[in-house]
Design goal:
Helix 1 packs across helix 9 and helix 7 crosses helix 8. It is globular and about 50 Å long. It contains nine helices and eight strands. It has a single domain, classed as Rossmann fold (3-Layer(aba) Sandwich). The protein is α/β, with parallel strands linked by helices. The structure holds adenosine-5'-diphosphate and zinc ion. Adenosine-5'-diphosphate binds next to helix 2 and helix 3.
């Protein structure tokens, strides 16, 4: 049985980085609603223009639109059989209930919350830059314009401006409360301390997953 995981955490908690690493190590698909939305926005389609109105201001995309986009991806039986890691979804209680209603109790083995205090993530987001060429994430140093890894141009993500950051963090705390309580009531919530070096956080996360998802406990030979 392949692992099916939900990963939650405040903006700037390192969720994207940790999810990419964990998905590779587990051999499961990484589905990020934020990435799916940004890709759709980049095409300039009518759906993309609709999404952009929410994403650029830091508002949540309405649940029915989110569920359509997720269904288009999780609809694949092959993907479900291989296992997946959901990054940025579910973000509201209604989204979580819809997910479990459609896919049953097997929708997720585990929900991992990467916990980083709001004071820490606020500073990280203000300094966050994305490489336009290789998409890697960097922390801005004074006047730095180029990516260390590939020399590509660094830019701020469109929704990493002060008002949108404040709005996203506020919305996260408002929505995450009831969502975390509900995931806990399903017996699948595990909270991992997300403060520290990325390697250390990855080790903590992997240990939590290995302990809770029997399928990956066996060492690879
Ligand atoms: P962040 O968590 O840093 O805001 P994401 O890349 O996860 O970044 O999401 C970017 C934006 O996409 C969010 O601010 C929101 O507008 C939208 N979004 C992503 N996932 C969801 C979701 N599950 N429900 C509603 N809106 C979402
Ligand atoms: Zn780069």
């Amino acid at each position: 049985m392949a692992a099916r995981l939900i990963v939650l955490g405040r903006q700037g908690a390192g969720k994207g980085t940790q999810c990419a690493r964990l998905a590779t190590r587990l051999g499961v698909s990484h589905l990020s609603t934020g990435d799916l939305f940004r890709a759709e926005i980049a095409t300039g389609s009518p759906l993309g223009r609709q999404l952009d109105r929410y994403v650029s201001t830091g508002d949540l995309v309405p649940d029915d639109v989110v569920l359509d986009v997720v269904a288009a991806n999780l609809g694949s039986a092959a993907l479900r059989a291989r296992g997946y890691l959901l990054d940025g979804f579910p973000r509201t209680l209604a989204q979580a209930q819809a997910l479990f209603e459609v896919l049953g109790a097997g929708a997720a083995d585990l929900a991992l919350e990467i916990d980083v205090p709001v004071e820490v993530v606020g500073a990280r987001l203000a300094a966050r830059r994305i490489c336009t060429a290789c998409r890697s994430v960097a922390a801005a140093r004074d006047g730095q314009l180029r990516c260390d890894a590939c020399g590509g141009r660094l830019e701020r993500r469109a929704d990493d401006h002060d008002e949108a950051i404040a709005r996203r963090l506020w919305l996260y705390d408002e929505q995450a409360g009831p969502l975390l309580v509900w995931l806990d009531s399903q017996g699948i919530l595990v909270t991992v301390d997300g403060v520290g070096r990325p390697d250390a956080v990855h080790d903590r996360i992997y240990a939590a997953v290995a302990q809770r998802v029997p399928a990956i406990r066996a060492p690879v030979t």
